[in-house]
Every structure is written in structure tokens, then in C-alpha cells.
UniProtKB/TrEMBL annotation:
Residues 275-286 have a biased composition (Basic and acidic residues). This is 437_t:CDS:1. Residues 270-291 are annotated as: Disordered. Pfam families: Clr2_transil. One of its GO terms (cellular component) is mating-type region heterochromatin. InterPro entries: Clr2, Clr2_N. It comes from Acaulospora morrowiae. One of its GO terms (biological process) is silent mating-type cassette heterochromatin formation. Residues 84-167 form the Cryptic loci regulator 2 N-terminal domain. PANTHER family: CRYPTIC LOCI REGULATOR 2.
Amino acid sequence: IFHQMVFAEVTPAGIKITHSDCNGINDIPEQIGPVVDEAGDIHYFSRIHNDDPTVQYWLKRLGQSLAKHFAYVYKINVDKDRAVLIDFPEGYWMFMHEKEHKDGKKTSVQKYLLGNISIHKSSLLILRINEVSTFAGHTIYKSTNAFMPHLFWLVSDKSNKCKCRSCVCDKMKESMPITPARKAYTSSTRVNNGAKRKSKFSKVQGTIDFSKLEFINFERKQGVTIYRCGEVVWVDVLKMGDKKLTRLAESTSKEIDIRYWPGIILKRTRTQSSNEHEDSTPKTSEDSLSLMEVDTPNTEYGFIGEVGGVPGESFFGSASPSPLAKIKEKDIPTSQHSPEFDDCYVLIPTINCSQHSYPVNDASRLSEDEFFVELFELSEKLELDREALSPWLTHRPNILDPDCDTDNENDESLVRNYVDAVREATLLSQSYTTLNAYQEDVMDYSQMIDMLKQNERRRVKDKIIRTEAILFGNELFCIEDIIRLTPCDIENPTYEDYPDPQYIYLKDICETNNGIQLIGDGLIRRRLVNENDARFITDYEWYRINFPEEEYTIDLGEVAGRFYVDYPDLEEIMGCSRSMTLKERWGGQSFYRTIMNTMNVSPIV
């Protein structure tokens, strides 16, 4: 018996959605256009039917995600063969948008899912409101990740309002006037209104000509690729030294590629290098302990928790002097602000953990790092250097294809373990967990207000819930990271002649009414200026496209993942869609107790 509050049915053919919020027309023409816009470009919209490979991919991907959502939220298991949508919800249609430029030299093609379709005089109307493209005033979903949150809401009991980016932007249209590009703007304030990559300005005296705006070269001192405790990575089987796994990986008779096995970083240690500066201070055992490290020298992150049965002590045996450790019960938000705050965790910065001061561009200190990794399903702990590891998004094994046959493989037990390991790691990659949620407690706001920039004043005054870090899928984001954003429409930027950011330099992680949002500077990466063997962030040209007093606010739906200097052109997207606590994330894993002890994690009481 299916859950009575779920507006969906599981049939032998797949999942059928029984509720829709569309009230548009159902008699949709096969093609709309040609329509010439103000720039002289020609637009066509053509219907795409369910036998098209793109539609089949959407239905399959949405069905798989919905099946996992049913299992996680409603405790309903859906067979793998039925984890596919029979059709889109009523009133939703897939269209192909073709744009012919007036010069006749370029043609762009994009495919969208449209809902609430209405046609006015058989013409096409394209607006750009809050960087959400709309067709006849209604939202276009450009990817399965964009539609998933709304699909989850459609099958729910509707007790809460939909918080997908499209619905949130629809509610804000009346309060967000559209200001044409190249008009009068101010660089003094940034209104945090939930818009995706759009920096909202107010009118003041004077104007800014965006075409002449000088980009500010951004200088970031960060070393080569680094992995953090709690992240899930791929381990190169050929560099593990395991004969059985090596033979299996080198086998040519199989269809499943087991060259890379998923594992979780349990600990990171720093090996003494001859290139390190000599220090007369003896090195203690504390210096080799590896916690969640940020990509900045001499800065490590540990957790407040229980050490030896003493609550509130850090990993180093005493409570951190950081003011973040002094979180009082009255400062903890109520459940109406954060339903899962009872299971949040405190991440404490400890600046002076390391006794050694490393040069910023000393690659040897990172190449000497050792990582303790536990392989999923094998419960085998390995000590490896970073050359044997690679980020989660760099590989996509064949096992992710549900049609892959494993029955006739050699070493069937190991193959079965690999299948389960990949599936478990993939499930983790679809969730996020915030760490160290807190509110700033300003004793005298009137005395402090003059010391802050306007964008900081608002966050302090409103006491927005902030977090020090977030496990985004299988990656850990920390403040001062460079975060990749999902691809933007280069030909149709939010502002005319003004580029949208490709990256964000992370300055804040906040929880608002619109969900978790990343706040920081919008960046564009340009040419490589220093082709060294050891690559650094500063080897690229970085340009900040907002003024120092402005910030970009990015929803998690617009985030792709971390930027790795070893993989600068990585384009894969993590695709996180639901929130999990650490216990929900790792509670069923064999390494749960180990990683909680290593990271010294304990919930706030």
C-alpha cells in the first residue's frame, strides 16, 4: 500500500505523478515561432516527445531521484526497474529552443521543461527575471537538478510551500523591480534577496558603464589539490598494493571498470620534509593529528566534542579560545528556524596547531601529506599519498548504469562489494550537511555598525544563521574556498554586456528563508600565466566582477563543486538535493565511530 500522503503511484511501467500545479493550456502546438526579439535574433520553440533521448534521460533521472526520495522521506522502497517516471506531471512539456543570431553565423540550441504554458497571439515571450528564464511569464526548468526540488514538493502533502528556486523567484517578482542594464547603480549595498547570480543595485547619483568596468585581479594564495577529512574520494586500485583488486582492475573480460574504488578520508597527516623551515620548538604529537584543514597555511579546523569523557574540549585536550566555542543555549535557533539544529555540530578554528610556518608556494609540504582512507564495503584502512586519490566528480564508473551485468564476472564477491560501495558513495553525493551553525551575538550593535560594510551590517543586524563549513555531497566547503558554479548562459547574461560569475570566492555560508546560500565575490578565471609542474591558484588570472562592497548570493542549486587546481576544467556537478545530519550521513557505515573519534564530533547539547 503506497503512502496515503504521497501524490504518486508506482505502476509496473514506472512512477506516475498524480498531482500538478499547472493550469495552462494542454493543446500545445508542435512549433512556436519564428519570433524576432529586440536584438534582431530569431527564436523557435519546438515540442519534444517522449521518444526523444533527452526526454527519456529526464524521466529516468527524475524517477531514480524520486525513488531515493521515497525511501529516505517516506520509507517506501521502489524497485529499480520501476524507478522511472512514466511521464512528466500534467501540464509540463519538453521544448527545444533554437536561437538564430541576426548575423546568421551562430545558432544555439537548448532544451527546457516548461510548465503553465500560455500563448499570446502565437508569439514567443522571453523575459529574464532574477536570472530565471520565463516563457509567457512562467518558469522554464533547464536541468533535472533544477526540477527535482519542485517534483519532490508536487508529490508531498503540500504542508509547506515549495522552496525551489523557481517558486521562490515567482513570489519575489513584485518586490524586485527590473532595472535595465547600463542605468544608474550603486556599489554601496547588496540586497540578499535570494537571486541566483545577480547582484542587485539601487539608483544613486552617477552611472557605471559596465563595458568600461575594470576587473580587479584576484590574488588567492592556495596550494595544490588538497583533500579534507570527511570527503569521499576515488582511490586508484593500482596504487593500493592489493593483489586481488589489482588483478580485478587489470582484467579485460569485465564490463565494470574497477580501476577506482570509493573511500572516505579519515585523517590527514603531515610528513616532515627537508624543505620545511627548521624550528627549534620540538614537534608534538598534536602537530601530526589531522583534522579538517582549510587550504590556507597554519589553519586547521577541529570539532568541539567529548574527549576522554569531558564535554566541550577540543581535539587538543582543552577548549578552543575561539569565540565560536562560547555558544550559549539562548543563541541556538529554535526549531522553527532550523528543524535539524538538534543534530548540528560545532567546528572550531584552531590557528596555532602547526608548529611550522610553510611558504605559501611550497608544493613539497602538500606532496608529503599522507591520507588515511577507508574503502567503502571493504572496511580496509589505507595510508596513501595524494597521487593515489582523485576527487569524486572526476570519475563516473560504468556501474552507475543500471543495465550493467555483473553476474558472469570473476571475483563476484568483490564486484558485488564494488557495486554497493559506489551506490553508497553516490547516495552521499546527493546530500549536504552544515557544520557549526550559529548566530552572531553583537553586544552593542550601535558601536559596531560603523566598523562594518553595509552588506555585513545587514547580516549582523538580522542575526542570520551562519555556518563555518558545509559537506556538499562528497566535498567539504570552507570559508575562503573557490567554488565552481553551474554553467551559465554566456550568450544571455543577467545584465547586458556584463558577465555572470563562473566561480564564487566563499566568504559566508548562511541559512535563510530561501534555504542554504553561499555568499562571496563573483570570479572569472582567465589564462594560465605560470605553467609550473606544481600548480597553484595564483598561476591563473582571477578577476572579481563585483565591487568590494558588493556580494553575490548563490543558492545550492547553482553550485557545482570545489575548484581543484589539478583539475581546472572539471565541469561535473555534484547535484545535492536534500539535507542530512552527520548521523544520517554516516551512521550506518563501518567507519562511523572511527571518523567521529578522529574528527572529534559531538552534537551541541
